[in-house]
Specification:
single chain; mainly beta; 7-stranded mixed beta sheet; 4-stranded antiparallel beta sheet; elongated
Length: 120
């Protein structure tokens, strides 16, 4: 009933930029936190950046100063602007959102993931 659709991944050279977007759709009453995670081969999924409804942000130390998370609450979207990309940023990137679907039901929803590959 709720779907998160990501776009914007791809292949880029080190030092380049990419912008990921994610739109939530379906039976949505409200959205709390939205975030981006990533998972590299053989590694655990890790938080990249998150943003509350009020605009407070949190970033992984490895991306501070290079990545910027933004959201449009009216459009149920979250984006991740990634600059000065490094090969170690290569991973599948997932968006997630904490969504209220009924007056009494709230859950975390995940997108299917989008591949980001940074070549050296």
């Amino acid at each position: 009933q709720v779907q998160l659709a990501e776009s914007g991944g791809g292949l880029v050279q080190a030092g380049g930029s990419l912008r990921l977007s994610c739109t939530a759709s379906g039976r949505i009453r409200s959205i709390n936190d939205m975030a981006w995670y990533r998972q590299a081969p053989g590694k655990q999924r890790e938080l990249v950046a998150s943003m509350t409804t009020g605009g407070s942000t949190n970033y992984a130390d490895s991306v501070k100063g290079r990545f910027t998370i933004a959201r449009d609450n009216a459009k149920n979207t979250v984006s991740l602007q990634m600059n000065t990309l490094k090969p170690e940023d290569t991973a599948v990137y997932f968006c997630t959102a904490n969504i209220k679907t009924t007056p009494f039901t709230r859950a975390d929803y995940w997108g299917q993931g989008t591949q980001v590959t940074v070549s050296s």
